[in-house]
Amino acid sequence: MLLAVVRAIEWFVGGSAAQASLLDSITFRAAAAAVLAFVLSLVCGPRAIAWLGRRFCEPIITPSSTLRALHQAKQGTPTMGGLLILATSLASVLLWSDLTNPLLLAGTVYYAALGVVGVIDDWRKATGHRKRGLEEWEKLAAEAVLSGLVLLFLYVIGRPAGWQPVLYVPVVDVAWPLGILGVPWFLVVMLGATNAVNLTDGLDGLAAGCYVFAGGAVGVVVYIAGHAVLAEHFGMLHVPAAGEVTVLVGAAVGASLGFLWFNCHPAQVFMGDTGALALGGLLAYAAVVAHQELLMALACGVYVAEAVSVLLQRAYFRRTGRRLFRCAPLHHHFQFLGWPENRIVVRFWIVAAICALAATAVLRL
Fold this sequence. Notes:
365 residues; mainly alpha; two-stranded antiparallel sheet; 16 helices; 69% helix; globular
């Protein structure tokens, strides 16, 4: 919006575009969006938490008596804190992004729509309308419909913006055209990332802290994809309109960092599905736009490990009647081993940082 205003003023006075050169810089606007979202989170956080605390509190619902005992102190903590993440990041995006960019608009709508699905789920749980919120199939169906609509947009509108349905393999530098067959692949990526972040959101500060590293790495990747010179230098497919998505990712990272201020142990608020679904979906969208789904899996290593642990646990239990892990997702396994919550969270953050660094390092191979 700010960029559009400056351009309109320049057109009206007949000036040159040189005066808007700073705002034309995606890196500047992405950094500004991150800082603004962070500051807004700190300023608005206390009032938002107080408002949520009067209306929506986290119920401890689990069949495990061990988990109930471990998390009993969390009973009554305000939830649906993802509203704070969404509000501050979207406000920042509206100010700092180029709203004429089709890939940015599609990503913003997708991000917000997933947040709405999360709101419905959290609201049902917190108000007692349905103790477990949306049924698993209902949530997946809603996510699939939204992801399908975004993919339809990319297939129809994204191509003029430089996007193509291909599977790019880093390091070996191979790009396989997928055509319409790319739809199931992209759906798996988007649904997988969305729910992986949601599964990770089980300890104070875990999901938000890991997102700062994963989102930072994905933001770098999507920026490079949108930059012709850098894309050629790093051997990536160039998507001219993709760079603007960096502003959206940057705002989400800044908002997550601001949210972490209140979500670190002992948490004053939980993000709930409202934040987790939106943040996960944004990671997947940025990766799909940049043709870097495989690299995203590395950058989001903690999220991937958490999701895989659940899948393995279910498959192993159905086959043998026994549990592969003491409890899934993976962070609960370490809780059952007796690790303090802070130790688990910080060590997962360290792994998330290593995964993010590894993903950016792979770009140089």
